[in-house]
Fold this sequence. Notes:
By secondary structure, this protein is of the alpha/beta class. Helices cover 41% and strands 17% of the residues. It contains 16 helices and 16 strands. The protein is globular, with a radius of gyration of 23 Å. It starts with a helix and ends with a helix. Mean pLDDT is 93; it is low at 1-28.
Amino acid sequence: MKFLKFLTLFAVISFNLNAQIHSQLKINQQKNTTYVIKNVNVIPMTENNKIIENATVVIQKNVIKSINGSIPTNTKIIEGKDKWLIPGLIDMHVHNLASSSPFVIYPTKGPLVNYDTQNLMTLYVTNGVTTVFELSARPEHIGQRNEITRGDVIGPRIALAALIDGKNANMTATNPSDGRQAVRIAKGEQYEFIKVYSKLNEETFKAIIEEAQLQKMKVVGHIPNVFEGKPAKDFFIPHFGLIAHAEELSKQTNDYSYEKALEFARLAKKNGTWLIPNLSNMESIIKQARSLENIQNLPSFKYVHPLMQSKWITSNSYYRASDQLIEYFQKQADFHKLIVKAFKENKVPMVTGTDAGISGIVWGFSLHDELKLLVEAGLTNEEALASATRLGAEWLEIDDKIGTIEIGKFADLILLDENPLENISNTSKISGVFVNGKWIDKNKIDIMLTDVEKWNTANKEKYDWKELLNSLSN
Length: 474
C-alpha cells in the first residue's frame, strides 16, 4: 500500500513538474522567436521623425535587432504592407486596481478584494499601452510588476511613484522632518519616484522635494491647497518636475484667461516643470455630472471590473451636480485647453496621462481619448504622439530603452492599420501589439478582451460596492 501511495505521489509530482516545464518552455520559445515585420511604414517618433517607408524590422530576444538589415533564418513573418508601426504608448498617470484591504483586519487575513492581474493588464496591452506610471504606488503594485517581469502576466512596464500627503495616505507627513523621512522610506522600499499631494503644508511640501532631489528621485504631483490665493511663483520650486493635471493650475486661480495660462507656462519653463494636461479627466467628470448613462454607455465599460462598475454607478460623487457646478467644471475644462496652447507656445514639454482608474476613465482605452483631446486643444498629431511616446520615456529617464523605434531598444510597438499622423484616431485601429517582444495579433487581442468581458459578466452579481463598504463599517 505504501509503495502504491508513493507511486501515486510520484506521478502527481511528475505531472506538475512536466506542466511547469512545458509552460516555461512555451514562454522561453516566445522570447526566443525572431519576428520580421515586412513592408511596413515606420513612424520612429525620434526628434526628426523621418518616416521609413516599406521597411523590414527584425525583432529578436525582445529588442529591435535591425531596420532594413538582413533577415535571419527561421523567423516568423508579419506582413506590414500598408500598415504603420509606432512605439508603444505611455500613460503617465494611472491608478491600477490591486488586491488589497484598507486596513489590517487581523494578522494573516490578507486582502478583502482580489483582482486577476491579467484581466487588469489586458486592457492596457490590447490598446497598445506598453508603459504606465502608477501615481499611488503600494507594495501590491510592486507585486504586479513582478508578475509581469516573470512572464506570468502579459502587461505593461510599470513605473512607481509613492504618494505622500498631509493625512489619509499610506505615507503621511505634517512637518518637514517627517516629509524627509517619508522620502527616505520610499527610496528604501524601492519606489522610483515621489508624488506630492494636496494636503501637504508649504514647509513639508518643499522639504519633501528637497529630500527627493538628494535621494535622486524625481517628483510628480499636485500643487497643495495651501498655495491657493498665493503667487504662482511660490509653488514652482526647483525639482518639482511634473504637474499631474492641468486642474492643479486651474484651481489656483479664478482668472481663466489666456494671459494667466501664459504666466503658468512661463514659470513652468523657467523652473523646468513639465505638465500632464489630463484633459480627459475633467471631460469625463462633466459627462458623469450630467448623466450616469454617459458611463454605462461607454463601449469599454464592459471590460471594467464589476466592483468598479458598481462603484462608478452607485457611489458616483459627480452625478447630479448642480448646474452651477457643471458650469464651473466646463470653465475649467476650457481653461485647460488654453493651458495646453500656452505650454506649447512656450515649448514646455507635456506628457500624456489620463488618471486611468477614476470613475469613467477606463484603463488603456482612455489614452486614445486623451490623444484626441490634445489634438483638439491645439497639438499636432505628431506632437500628441510624442507626448505619449518619446517624451514620457524621457521624463521617466528610460528613453534609452523605449519611446522611439530604434535599433537596440525594447520591442514595445503597435502595428496600426492606418496612419495616425493623418488622423490621431487611427491609434485605436490596432492590427497587433508587441509588448516587450511578445506579439499579440488582432485575433489574440479580441480573444483577450472577450475573456475579460465574459469573466466580468459571470461574476457581476458577486460584487457590490455598497455592500463592501457596509462590511468594512461592521
